[in-house]
Write a structure and sequence with these properties.
Low-confidence stretches: none
CATH topology: Ferritin
Largest sheet: none
Number of domains: 1
Helix content: over 70%
Order of helices and strands: HHHHH
CATH architecture: Up-down Bundle
InterPro entries: DUF6099
């Protein structure tokens, strides 16, 4: 499945979640998707993105690991359905929005936490989502720089 479809599915599922447990489950799904997209870009993405993409994958994996939520059954993991990234720029824009929404969802869970352990798990997961989003923004900057520095195709230069 295309990354953008998975991102949209994750955003919708996160928005529909009302209880803390379902929010945490959707945060886990979103972080797993960010990890998968980062891994895919690190292996097969534009060369200038590979280092940041690897960092995105590692940070998103940390975001999954800090949550004391049991992972879903393998067939329920949205990220496992990732088959193609499509346009890296569009995918990264969508992923950046999703990671911002993940941070907001985690703040909601942390504010309602009765258990101090849950609160601190949320804080660590917020840090991981924020750092992952920073990586996404850096990759977008690098793509913009590449587009700006790319030579114009022959025959399209201005006549003046």
């Amino acid at each position: 499945m295309d990354a953008m479809r998975l991102i949209e599915a994750s955003r919708c599922a996160l928005a529909r979640s009302q209880e803390s447990a379902s929010l945490v489950a959707e945060v886990w799904q979103s972080q797993a998707l960010a990890q998968a997209i980062g891994s895919r870009l690190a292996v097969a993405g534009p060369p200038e993105l590979r280092g940041e993409a690897l960092g995105l994958s590692e940070l998103s994996g940390r975001g999954c690991a800090v949550l004391s939520h049991p992972p879903p059954e393998p067939q329920e993991i949205r990220a496992a359905k990732l088959t193609t990234i499509g346009d890296a720029h569009d995918t990264l824009l969508g992923l950046g929005v999703l990671l911002g929404e993940v941070g907001i969802a985690l703040v909601t869970v942390a504010m309602g936490a009765d258990d101090e352990g849950v609160y601190w798990q949320c804080m660590e997961a917020i840090d991981a989502a924020d750092e992952a989003r920073d990586r996404v923004l850096e990759m977008l900057r690098r793509l913009a720089a590449r587009a700006r520095d790319a030579p114009e195709p022959s025959g399209t230069r201005p006549m003046c």
